[in-house]
Amino acid sequence: MDGLAIPWSLLPAELIEQHRLSHRMHERGGEREIRFLRRSKLPLLPVWCDGQYRVVPWGCRSGLLPKSGLTWLTTVESGEWVNYCADAVTVPAVLGLQNGIWYRIREGVQGLIVERRELTAAT
Fold first, then answer.
1. Could you tell me which residues are beta bridge partners of residue 111?
2. Half-sphere CA count of 78, side-chain side, radius 13 A
3. Strand, helix or coil at 18?
4. Cα separation values, 14 from 4, 6, 37, 78, 87, Å
5. How far apart are CA 95 and CA 102, in angstroms?
6. Cβ distance 87 to 112 under 8 Å?
7. Residue 19: what are its φ and ψ, rounded to 5°?
8. For residue 3, what are the β-bridge partners?
């Protein structure tokens, strides 16, 4: 998947402003959408996580995780993400982009989020 589009009206205005997403806005059939491209300079994704929308980096740049920003359901089901403490999230996309062609998505996209967990030492 090369990109995703999310209806402008779905994301809170504060989130759009906070992450400066207005430059990603496009119009399709008179409706505004925000496009998120995996190969953009700063790849981001909006996700539904813990009862709220968040905008998070798409993929990993640190080398600690796979860098592609994509995984397969079979990889998740086989437990390969367990060691990363990955949590399930939903990306509220209505359109996907693959090889230059936009296609409809019915119920969003399932994803994983791996957050940096700091280790604290007891004193």
1. 89
2. 6
3. helix
4. 20, 16, 21, 38, 24
5. 6
6. yes
7. -100, 10
8. 37, 97
Nearest to 8 by CA among 90, 106, 29: 29
The SS3 assignment for 73 reads: helix
Q: Are 36 and 4 in contact (CB under 8 A)?
A: yes
Contact 10, 47 (CB under 8 A): no
105 and 91 in contact (C-beta within 8 Å)? no
Mean pLDDT by 10 residues, the chain (123 residues): 94 95 94 94 92 90 71 85 86 96 94 68 45
pTM of the model: 0.83
* Distance of alpha carbon 39 from the chain centroid: 13
**Rounded Cα gap, residues 33 and 93, in angstroms:** 10
Decide: helix, strand or coil at residue 9. helix
Q: What does the block give as tokens for 51? A: 């009862």
Give the count of beta carbons closer than 10 Å to the beta carbon of residue 44.
Answer: 19
Enumerate the H helices of the chain as residue ranges. 13-18, 73-77
Round to whole Å and give the CA distance between 70 and 97: 13
